[in-house]
Specification:
heterodimer; A: mainly beta; seven-stranded mixed sheet; B: mainly beta; five-stranded antiparallel sheet
């Protein structure tokens, strides 16, 4: 089946720094990608919809200036967590819709010290 | 927006017994209902899905039923095995191509050997 990759898989950073997470569709094009956040033992919460060539659509309560999303090509979307704080520590997962199902990336574990 | 509720939050079954997880949704326009299995620190993996034009779908030991009138759908796992132990999420979206998924809270399934 289709493959979605994420990089990095794990990142530890200091408070106040910015972290960029990449999501790539490896063998198909995705005009839309989704970014989710998952806290330990919790469900996936949709943060935003990334749209190729246009602005991302953010879910209610998600700060667009905090979580910058860029969808520069049909195979790449990036999520940048700006001025990260410990409360931003979480598991971030992207996904891209295929013809008949949504394909998830392996996730990025972000730890902010 | 769509609200998906999932029960139970935890489920412990004896190996060989059946496991049933139930979900309800709020938006009657939703018509795509996937189920995901997620192991710790891994990406969600689609195990079965159902679309609104059918009431039941089966794949070996896994089956899903959908009642659109009552707005609920259920996952049935028969002859459970230890490798079925994981967190299971139900989800719903408006259209097949929308893939903006709303997830249930998850069910931690433990299969006792």
């Amino acid at each position: 089946g289709a493959v979605v990759s994420q990089h990095p898989s794990r990142v530890i950073c200091k408070s106040g720094t910015s972290v960029k997470i990449e999501c790539r569709s490896l063998d198909f094009q995705a005009t839309t990608m989704f970014w989710y956040r998952q806290f330990p033992k919790k469900s996936l919460m949709l943060m935003a919809t990334s749209n190729e060539g246009s602005k991302a659509t953010y879910e209610q309560g998600v700060e667009k200036d905090k979580f910058l999303i860029n969808h520069a090509s049909l195979t790449l979307s990036t999520l940048t967590v700006t001025s990260a704080h410990p409360e931003d520590s979480s598991f971030y997962i992207c996904s891209a819709p295929g013809l008949a199902e949504q394909f998830f990336g392996p996730g990025t574990r972000l730890t902010v010290l | 927006g769509e609200n998906v509720e999932q029960h139970p939050s935890t489920l412990s079954v004896q190996e060989g017994d059946s496991a049933v997880i139930k979900c309800t949704y709020s938006d009657s326009a939703s018509n795509y209902f996937p189920w995901y299995k997620q192991e710790l620190g891994k990406r969600p993996q689609l195990i079965i899905d159902i679309r609104s034009n059918v009431g039941e779908k089966k794949d070996q030991r896994i089956a899903v039923t959908l009642n659109k009138t009552a707005k609920h759908f259920s996952l049935h796992i028969t002859e459970t095995q230890p490798e079925d132990s994981a967190v299971y999420f139900c989800a719903a979206s408006l259209t097949i191509n929308d893939y903006k998924l709303s997830f249930g809270a998850g069910t931690t399934v433990t299969v006792r050997a």
